[in-house]
């Protein structure tokens, strides 16, 4: 983060295919370059609020904000189920100016 203080929401650039279930969103600490299991904040992205035809920025608010420290690495995780016909597509904004961003994906 660019400053130290409370993190009350994150924004993701995405769209959906079909009607996937609501998805959990978590902010976690870093564990040697990968997400840890230490959850600092969590929220839910409601599927019905996201469109299917175009990417859009969606804000996910946290009931209890995380306290983050400038210059420290954190991860935010979108945690949902896998389905071949109902899923999320996470976009990347090349104009964001954040060259240090890293994305990792896993399928369960």
Throw out a few tags for this protein.
108 residues, 6 strands, globular, mainly beta, three-stranded antiparallel beta sheet
Helix residue percentage? under 10%
Q: Give the strand tally.
A: 6
Total helical segments: 0
Q: What's the arrangement of strands in the largest beta sheet? A: 4-1-6
Major sheet size, sense and barrel closure: 3 strands, antiparallel
Form type: globular
Structural class: mainly beta
Low-confidence stretches: none
**Order of helix and strand elements from N to C terminus:** EEEEEE
Strand fraction equals: over 45%
In angstroms, what separates the terminal alpha carbons? 29 Å
Instruction: Give the mean pLDDT.
Output: 87
Question: Over all CA atoms, what is the radius of gyration?
Answer: 14 Å
Short description:
The protein is mostly beta strands and 108 residues long.
Structure in words:
With 108 residues, the protein is mainly beta. It is 0% helix and 51% strand. It is built from no helices and 6 strands. The strands form 2 sheets. It has a 3-stranded antiparallel sheet, with no helix packed on it. Strand 2 and strand 3 form a beta hairpin. It is globular. 8% of the residues are buried.
């Amino acid at each position: 983060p660019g400053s130290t203080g409370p993190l009350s929401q994150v924004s993701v650039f995405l769209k959906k295919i079909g009607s996937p279930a609501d998805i959990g969103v978590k902010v976690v600490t870093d564990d040697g370059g990968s997400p840890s299991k230490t959850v600092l904040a969590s929220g839910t992205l409601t599927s019905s609020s996201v469109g299917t035809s175009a990417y859009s920025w969606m804000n996910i608010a946290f009931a209890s904000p995380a306290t983050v420290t400038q210059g420290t690495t954190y991860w935010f995780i979108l945690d949902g189920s896998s389905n071949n016909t109902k899923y999320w597509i996470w976009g990347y904004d090349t104009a964001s100016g954040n060259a240090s961003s890293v994305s990792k994906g896993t399928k369960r």
